[in-house]
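lol ok so funny story. i was supposed to be doing the assay writeup but got distracted and ended up predicting the structure for this chain instead. priorities right. anyway since i did it might as well share w the group, maybe its usefull for someone
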Amino acid sequence: MIINLFRKLLVSLSFFYKNNLELVKKKDKIILKNIQSRLDKFSQENQTLKKTHKIFRKKIMFLLRNGSLNNFLKNNFIQKMFFVHNRFFILKELNILRKDKKWKFYQRIIEEDNVGDPIRYFLYPKSSGNKINHAYHLSVLSSEFNVDLKKVNKVFEFGGGYGCMARIFSKINKKIFYACFDTNYVNLLQYYYLKQNNLNVGFKKKNNYFLMSNFYKNKIFLLKKFKNHFFIANWSLSETPIKFRERFLKIVENSKFILISFQEYFEEIDNLSYFQKLKKKLDKKFHIKILKNPYYNGNIFRRQNHYFFIGKKL
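and the output, tada:
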């Protein structure tokens, strides 16, 4: 209850900026019809989900079935899982981007859309805290390993939130092939967000933005297609059971660049120990760094260290 009130207080700081939802609402009908047809075919709950995500699943399924998506980023539970808004550490990340020689590049890719009715960052309303945060993560990899993000043409993202990182890459490279693995219901949220942003998104391999939730069905395709790609997992791989992570290690090993964000502990899992062991496993093929996130250590109700696991193939 207290954390929800705190979140609402932070959101209120952006009261002066209103998104234009007229065009979003006009496209809703057709997109929501496609979502409803897929919802009817869903199987029962995925047993690999952790307790936290089982609760989230019930809430997001309700949201999808009721079709109230034009302002979904205003939902408390969506913000809790996917959307960082008016936090003061975001200003520190924004200042790092502003000081970067690539600031004009970052300035362009963090420009916010109206889709989902996002909370604009109260100290920089052209963007949102979430897009600034995602761009900052990319800048960490780019600066540490001198990576030209414009040359990235294939991305595999494990857990894509509502599609924010995919949207950012659509501004970096219009010819990108972007695959996003997530639960089937979150795939539908990504479909809504990316479709509303006029991207070629869908559940078939021919789509530029390919959404999937079944690893084994797509395993052969993934192992063939994703070589020398960019592997991204922001607080997603670290929030799944250890055995489930092992399915994706070959895709990680086949990548050229790695960007994984993780918290030190998730439920009963010691993530720092896990990623230290993974670093040793990959050290012969990659230059790997585990960096402590200097600006983010959770919220006032739960403090813990957060890290970047970044890599570049040797």
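DSSP finds 13 helices and 14 strands in the chain. The longest strand covers residues 306-313.
back to the writeup now i swear
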